[in-house]
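Batch manifest, entry 17 of 40.
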Amino acid sequence: MQTRRSLVCLALLFAAASLARADDTCAPVVESGWIRQPPMAMPMMAGFAEVRNPCDTPVAIVAAGSPAFASVELHETRKVDGVSRMRHVESLSVPARGRVSLAPGGLHLMLMRPQAEVELGQRIAIELELADGRKLRAQFEVRRPDAL
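Output type: C-alpha cells
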C-alpha cells in the first residue's frame, strides 16, 4: 500500500513538473503585423498588429525594437476634449487567453527614424520584449493605408 501511494505521489509530481514546463514555454503570438506606408519619406511611422496570448497567465509588453528603426515605442492615441492626443505607454498588458489590438486610432507602435527608405510590400522585423525578459519576434509588412 505504501509503495502504491509513493508511486501515485511520484506520478503526480512528474505531471505537475510537466505542466509547469509547458506553461513556461507558452508565449504570446504577434499576428497580422503591418506598417502604414507614409505618403512621403517621414521620420516616423506607425505599426499595427494583433497580440494573442494563448497562455494561462497574463503578460506585459514593456519594450520594442527593430534594426530598421532608430527606436520603437509603444504609444496610444486618445481623444481628449475632442482632440486626438498621442502618448507613450510604459507597458501593455495582454490578458491570459486574451488579445490586444494595435490599431489605427488606438494602441500602436511608433517607429522612429527609419535606417533606410521603407518600400511598399517590404517585410520588417520587429521585436517586442515582455516584462519577464522574453522576446517576441514578428514580421510587419509595409502597406498602403487604403489597402486594408
